[in-house]
Amino acid sequence: MNQPVTPENLGHISVPALQQYLRSAEACGLSREKMLAEAGIPAEVLLDNNSRLPGDVLQRLLSYVLPRCGNPLFGLQTSYYIQPGSYSVVGYIAMTSNTLAEAVSRVPQYEKLVGDMGTSVIEHEPGAIVVRWNCRFSDVQVRRHIIENVLASWTSYSRWMADAQDLSPLAVRFEHEPPADRTLLKQYQQIFRCPVYFNQPMSAIVISPQIFEFPLRQPDVNLRETLEQHAQVSLAALKEKYSLSDQVRSLLRAMLADSSPRKEFVAEQMGMNVRTLHRKLADEETSYQLILDDLRAELARKYLQQSALSVEEIARRLGFTESRSFIRYFKGYTGTTPGEFRQSTREEKTA
């Protein structure tokens, strides 16, 4: 039976992170007052750095800014405006770490405090560490600029923390196409100073083990412990603020990046047994399976629309043991096979 398509869950963005986009747009000559009005952002909200706004607010902001700023590299160049405060308390935790490896390892744990519009995953390849970022947004243009903002900002902030402006990744991978104007590619080189690849399966920064162990300039164990205690309190407050189904969905999103989801593990992370998890989700008029199915459908559409991943690889990333199970699931959920869905998407783009 076909399931209704649910509205996209774009997560949330912190006020400091949003400010980075606003400052960059102001540098393009756009009025802050007009931008806030178009995006539906009350000016007083920006006075509280602890506030978070729904991700669709950022989508509305960028939908207004991008056609008007005249800058096809807007997202990339927002990295010029990165500062420790842009990452809220996470930026200061990273800054007081001993090495870049320590700083990066704390990102998946605390990144929700900056925003949960995407999830970070640290992977290992022969001779390299890969820091991958999975973006929730599906609007092609908005998604492109957000991804370029994230990867370029990570690179710029890492150089600042290490006090080493010549520090560069081994490579940068973008899932989207290169800019239509190929002369703009030199701007990517100026920021990343390493090979930059487009049309990749996932967006990521590739780092050498040597750079990963690079010492940072302001390590402070005592201050970092204090900041982490504050961050943990803030995370606990977020868990209370958002529904159990939101928390389960977020955890499943992170789990699907690395392994097949297990309800026993999810329940344990939520501090309850499986029976209690089912009961509390039922109180919210949903279920573990429904949340998992909705999330798999959302991610499957993104993979089929925006990557060249094979059906077999997509099935693996969604926690299916074999591609036949994924094909059967996808057709039951959407009414079309993955191949038919991908073909129709391509036809729409070329129409």
Which tags fit this structure?
single chain, 351 residues, H-NOX domain, Arc Repressor Mutant, subunit A, 2 domains, five-stranded mixed beta sheet, two-stranded antiparallel sheet, 18 helices, globular
Q: Mind explaining what this structure looks like?
A:
The N terminus is likely disordered. The protein folds into two domains: 201 residues, H-NOX domain, CATH 3.90.1520; 108 residues, Homeodomain-like (Arc Repressor Mutant, subunit A, Orthogonal Bundle), CATH 1.10.10. The longest helix is centred in the middle third of the chain and has 23 residues. It is globular, with a radius of gyration of 20 Å. Strand 3 and strand 4 form a beta hairpin. The chain has a five-stranded mixed β-sheet with strand order 3-4-7-5-6. It has a two-stranded antiparallel ribbon with strand order 1-2. The two termini are 30 Å apart. Helices cover 56% and strands 9% of the residues. It has 18 helices and seven strands. The protein is α+β, with helices and mostly antiparallel strands and 351 residues long.
Order of helices and strands: EHHEHHHHHEEHEHEEHHHHHHHHH
Helix percentage? 55-70%
| Largest sheet data | 5 strands, mixed
**How much is the radius of gyration in Å?**
20 Å
Contiguous uncertain segments of 5+ residues: 1-7
E-strand count? 7
The outline comes out as globular
Structural class: alpha+beta
* DSSP summary: helix tally: 18
Mean pLDDT: 87
**Architecture (CATH level 2) name of the largest domain:** Alpha-Beta Complex
Distance between the termini: 30 Å
- Beta-strand residue fraction: 5-15%
CATH topology of the largest domain: H-NOX domain
**How are the strands ordered across the major sheet?**
3-4-7-5-6
Structural domain count: 2
| CATH class term of the largest domain | Alpha Beta
